[in-house]
Amino acid sequence: MTGETEVHEPFDIYDDTLREECGVFGILGHEDASALTALGLHALQHRGQEAAGIVTFDNEQFRAERHLGLVGDHFSDAETIGRLTGMAAVGHVRYSTTGETILRNVQPLFAELDGGGIAVCHNGNFTNALTIRRQLIRDGAICQSTSDSEVVLQLVARSRQGKIVDRFIEAITQMEGAYSLVALTSKKLIGARDPLGIRPLVLGDLNGAPILASETCALDIIGAKFIREVENGEVIVCTPTGIESYFPFGKRPARPCIFEYIYFSRPDSVLGGRSVYDVRREMGKQLAKETHLDADVIVPVPDSGVPAAIGYSQESGVPFELGIIRNHYVGRTFIEPTQQIRALGVKMKHSANRSQIEGKRVVLVDDSLVRGTTSVKIVQMIRDAGASEVHFRLASPPIKYSDYYGIDTPVREKLLAAKYGLEEMRAYIGADSLAFLSVDGIYRAMGYDGRDNANPQFTDHCFTGDYPTPLTDLSEDQEFVRPPRLVEVR
């Protein structure tokens, strides 16, 4: 690869990011349960923009609204909220990492059991769901969705335990991978977090009504009080009389996903006792310590690179400026299907602020580098705005490995860092220099001396290839031939 390298694949401004996972929310014992759930999902919208759903219980029956699209498109009017009656609700925002984006996959998923109904929301990914699903179908199960979340419902339904909590626990103990689950029955709000705590889940309270949510920002939007994080491996059961906890996996060290701090969680959330914003700013400071060079201005790639760029500027003493302005209103429907217009896609999402760039040595700061296609366009845009030098800095290590825990990373062959070395990547994106934060730098930003390779403090497989759970569905002896499935057409 040389400095003349060009992008040889079609450019899509939406195809060069790590897709968010999903967001879950539940509340028990509040007269405005559906409205509060809708607000909570608004706060979690960054975790999934493809679909949203709410299920409520009104002491007689469950009521459901599930739609493709954004929360605000479907749950912002009084008529819809009025149909979702009851003092208990669960809700979900979805980005599909497993299963197509079709209405029958939109959560919460619901099932009628012999002891009553149950609605389930899921964030994350089960790494043995296909294996179990195949066996369930062989045993006569009828699956109505292609989501791996349905496997939990099937296992709950088949359990011979007497109590719903015991059935739920028996089901999740058969699952591998990363997950946080929120379920609603006629009497209980149930939450669960995977044994390593890879996916987040928090407990809150609003005037005595318990709340479960993916992030603290969902509590803040409704004025709820943060109580604590649901512990790794904990099953938490909320009823009108109190809260009980179960630990079916035993106690073990937590290993939460490092990408929640780098990218996924909202900056105003608190995760593991740490302000996400403060952590990202500290990552920028560590990046400056490790990689800084002489420059005139620090420019974030909005919006994900802003906190790290602020930290980089504070550490290096080089001024921070908004050298790129983001258009928050661009949508897919505005991209015309012609190559000439498609090539302008990045300019519809980002515009160079020439007054802060022209004639200057620019350090661009972003959170991560995935395929590199957007970075190519941004570097060129900064050059076209008159920058004398363009240096690219990433506030995370190179992403070399795919994720199987709920982050929709491209296949490994499409990850830039999996294909090329540092100099080849620099030539590909066209920057004068390229540098990443080291793995130990990430851990220093989190308050550690570095990564404990014997007992890693976080799930960081995208950088290290160290997957913390079995990947049963990917084992070499498994060959999944999917039969023809129903495709919903309109």
UniProtKB/TrEMBL annotation:
> What is its EC class?
transferase
State the reactions this protein catalyses: 5-phospho-beta-D-ribosylamine + L-glutamate + diphosphate = 5-phospho-alpha-D-ribose 1-diphosphate + L-glutamine + H2O
Return the CDD domains for the record.
GPATase_N, PRTases_typeI
Cofactors needed by this protein, per the record, are:
Mg(2+)
Q: Which GO terms describe its molecular function?
A: amidophosphoribosyltransferase activity
What note does UniProt attach to the cofactor annotation?
Answer: Binds 1 Mg(2+) ion per subunit.
Positions annotated to bind Mg(2+)? S304, D366, D367
Per the similarity annotation, which family is this?
In the C-terminal section; belongs to the purine/pyrimidine phosphoribosyltransferase family.
Q: Function of this protein? A: Catalyzes the formation of phosphoribosylamine from phosphoribosylpyrophosphate (PRPP) and glutamine.
- The name on file for this protein is Amidophosphoribosyltransferase
Q: Which gene encodes it?
A: purF
